[in-house]
Automatic annotation (TrEMBL):
Pfam families: Methyltransf_31 (PF13847). Keywords: Cytoplasm, Methyltransferase, Nucleus, S-adenosyl-L-methionine, Transferase. GO terms for cellular component: cytoplasm. Residues 56-187 form the Methyltransferase domain. It catalyses: L-lysyl-[protein] + 3 S-adenosyl-L-methionine = N(6),N(6),N(6)-trimethyl-L-lysyl-[protein] + 3 S-adenosyl-L-homocysteine + 3 H(+). It comes from the Eukaryota. GO terms for molecular function: protein-lysine N-methyltransferase activity. One of its GO terms (biological process) is methylation. It comes from Rhinopomastus cyanomelas. This is EFMT2 methyltransferase. InterPro entries: Efm4/METTL10, Methyltranfer_dom, SAM-dependent_MTases_sf.
Length: 210
């Protein structure tokens, strides 16, 4: 991928500063990455698998925290969101307060250098964070490798990793996460047709840690 400002912390700090101000002004939580259907897809899959509601869930790059709010509304009780942008965590705290939900833990954390207490999760969810890391102008390949290492350190053996991406195909993600993970399922995403070929603009996969 071409390096992009979308891969830099400065971009996200500025973006969430703006969204924080917008929330303060009009109470709008801001953009939902990949739209609402991406959250519904994740929650439906967890329900279909009968994943226990007290399973420990980590939202990697939680942004405005709306996914965690929806998980809480669906009955999940052990929820943690991290983001390296303090403004994102401030925004997600305000969204959580507005919704009157208390059982979501939020922390400023860089997933590429996770703190020791960030461990033992049964489910990790990524909606666009791996995409953003892949666009970093400074050693994106090294950062992707570190991401996989971090994932192995925070996710329990046999834990589940649900990733939604608009930059990577299924085959590419299988290659990126080949060490330590196996594919459980590909989740259905909207299809498009171009030049007689059918493809997906978004890829959503469920991996299990070996």
């Amino acid at each position: 991928f071409s390096p992009s400002v979308l891969g830099t912390r400065e971009h996200w700090d500025a973006a969430y500063e703006r969204e924080l101000q917008t929330f303060h002004d009009i109470g709008d939580a801001g953009e939902i990455w990949f739209g609402e259907e991406s959250m519904v897809r994740i929650i439906r899959w967890l329900a279909k698998q009968k994943v226990p509601l007290d399973s420990s869930v980590l939202d990697i790059g939680t942004g405005n925290g709306v996914l965690l709010v929806e998980l809480a509304k669906s009955g999940y009780t052990n929820l943690t969101g991290i983001d390296y942008s303090p403004s994102a965590i401030q925004l997600s705290e305000k969204v959580r307060e507005k919704e009157g939900i208390s059982n979501i833990k939020l922390k400023v954390e860089d997933f590429l250098a996770p703190s020791a207490e960030l461990s033992g999760f049964e489910i990790c969810i990524d909606k666009g964070t791996f995409d953003a890391i892949s666009l970093n102008p400074d050693d994106a390949v090294g950062r992707r490798k570190q991401y996989v290492k971090s994932l192995c350190s925070v996710l329990k053996p046999e834990g589940l990793f649900l990733i939604t991406s608009c930059n990577w195909t299924k085959e590419e993600l299988l290659n990126e996460f080949r060490e330590g993970f196996e594919l459980l399922e590909e989740l259905p995403t909207p299809k498009f047709c171009f030049g007689g070929r059918i493809g997906n603009s978004v890829t959503a996969l469920v991996f299990q840690r070996k």
